[in-house]
Design brief:
The protein is of the alpha/beta class and 238 residues long. The protein contains 9 helices and 12 strands. Strands 4-1-5-6-12-11 form a 6-stranded mixed beta sheet, sandwiched between helices. The chain is globular and about 50 Å long. The N and C termini lie close together (9 Å). The relative contact order is 0.17.
Length: 238
């Protein structure tokens, strides 16, 4: 039996000063673009965060990252995306068996809560065990630190190839000192610790994603749409 045609998008509840003192939190397009892709592909879509809340990442609201069409949808508080985002349930209220696709959106703040987000990880594990698709974009791959395959007792990314936000970009954006203060690994560091191979594109802002079986990962905000599309393609092959 094919997994349910329902997708769940994980949202970070963490936030912290980062961009010139402005808050990092949910990078809006990393949830918005996958939401639109999944809806267009006929999925029911729900959103869930660590504690049911979110803070919009300041950088993600700037015109370079949130163009006019995206901003219109974001600002429509009566639209489906905002209604679901603004009224998220907590992970304990989600039955993972009802979903066939898990997508971890991000924002730098995901480095803080995702590695320890047992509720979100439990949902992902159930979807994985039931034969569904796991996907993540940018810093979202930090979720896999606790997504353990019961059959191997290792992270689901062990032995897999993944991508995610580059360490080079952290330096380019002059964010490294602040991020190191959080005491959490970066995505390439998580890959090494968890037994995965990390790959990236030459340009830190290139649209780039990797599909490795039922695992789909994207490198940065520019990759959110293509990563979601690849996750749908992987789902269709189940």
């Amino acid at each position: 039996m094919a997994p349910p045609r329902r997708a769940i998008i994980a949202i970070t509840s963490a936030h912290a000063p980062l961009h010139h003192g402005n808050e990092t939190g949910l990078f809006i397009s990393e949830a918005l673009h996958p939401f639109n892709v999944f809806k267009a592909a006929g999925f029911e879509v729900d959103l869930v965060s660590t504690n049911g809340t979110y803070v919009a990442d300041w950088l993600s609201l700037q015109p370079d990252f949130l163009p006019a069409n995206d901003r219109k949808q974001w600002e429509d508080v009566n639209g489906e995306f905002r209604k679901k985002l603004d009224n998220m349930v907590q992970p304990e209220e989600i039955d993972g068996s009802k979903y066939g696709l898990f997508f971890a959106s991000a924002g730098h703040a995901a480095l803080i809560d995702y590695p320890h987000a047992e509720g979100l990880q439990k949902i992902a594990i159930k979807i994985w065990v039931d034969g569904g698709i796991l996907s993540a974009v940018c810093h979202g791959a930090a979720i896999f630190a606790g997504v353990i395959d019961p059959s191997t007792k290792k992270s689901v990314i062990a032995g897999k190839t993944i991508t995610g936000f580059t360490t080079q970009a952290e330096y380019d954006m002059k964010l490294m000192d602040t991020i190191r203060g959080w005491g959490e690994p970066l995505i390439d560091e998580w890959a090494e610790q968890l037994g995965a191979k990390y790959e990236r594109s030459a340009g830190v802002w290139d649209d780039f994603h990797i599909t490795d079986g039922r695992l789909v990962t994207g490198m940065n905000p520019q990759s959110a749409k293509s990563t979601a599309e690849a996750a749908v393609s992987a789902f269709e092959k189940l």
